[in-house]
Amino acid sequence: MPQFGWEHFGDFDDLGAPDGECELCGTSIRYVFPVYHSKWGTMEVGEVCCDHLTSSDYASNQIKHQARRTRFVFSPRWSAGKSGTTSITQKGVALSIVPDGSSYKLRMNGRHGKLRFGSVLEAKIKAFDLIDSGIVGAYLLKVKLRLDHRHWERAYD
Ligand SMILES: [Zn+2]
What's the 29 CA to ligand 1 centre distance in angstroms? Predict the structure, then answer.
């Protein structure tokens, strides 16, 4: 079996309990990472072996990300507001999950998103990924700069 040159592919699987078995070391695993090597094919391994085979910290980062996301989703910092809205401030972003008919939308720093979600949980998970990846921060900064610029222009009209 090749020791180097493996790649991870697709999403890892969370079994919810250590019910899986790493195909490399035989350890019981909860998080199953699919890996691929052109000279070997595919295997399903745990995060330690995935990092080892891919010479990266991809798998352990994924696990950390998932743990932080779970803490965020179930955080006591969420506060319930009017008409079923639930809000939190995360990394400087004022985030609300706003019910809209039978679905939910995100509101960040007062701006409504276009995405719709079937459940509050889904909306929270997506919001975490957007904020955590820095996508939202960059977007809001751009909006703010544009607004500032407009104010600046207006001042010199
Ligand atoms: Zn293993």
Answer: 8
